[in-house]
Amino acid sequence: MLKTHLATFLSATPALAQTATAPATNPSTAMKVNAAEFVNKAANSNIFEIQLSQLALGKTQNAHLRDFEQRMITVYTNSHGVTFPP
Fold first, then answer.
1. Mean pLDDT of successive 10-residue segments in the chain (86 residues)?
2. How far is residue 42's CA from residue 37's CA, in Å, rounded to a whole number?
3. Which of 3, 9, 23, 54 gets the most CB atoms within 10 Å of its CB?
């Protein structure tokens, strides 16, 4: 009996997946983000990446990782022409 129910479920699953519709994307209902909020979030993200790279740089002795983390710090410090404080 369990095998019958399992077989029925498994045979119905592809049909359910095929009939499910994705929600329509409507540009008028899309999330609107103002420029100041975007810049603030981008700056916070960059600061986080810099701090994370500095933490990793202080914890590893691996030359390849140290080079990578230093590049990450350089890239995120100078990203998009905006210089962040150390």
1. 49 51 59 82 88 93 94 82 58
2. 9
3. 54
Domain boundaries, the chain: 33-81
CA distances from 61 to 23, 53, 70 (A): 49, 13, 13
The count of C-alpha atoms lying within 13 angstroms of the C-alpha of 24, restricted to the half-sphere facing its C-beta, is 4
Other residues' Cβ atoms within 10 Å of the Cβ of residue 73: 19
pLDDT for res 33: 74
The H-assigned helical ranges of 1-86 are: 2-19, 35-59, 63-77
Instruction: State pTM to two decimals.
Output: 0.54
**First-last CA distance in the chain:** 67
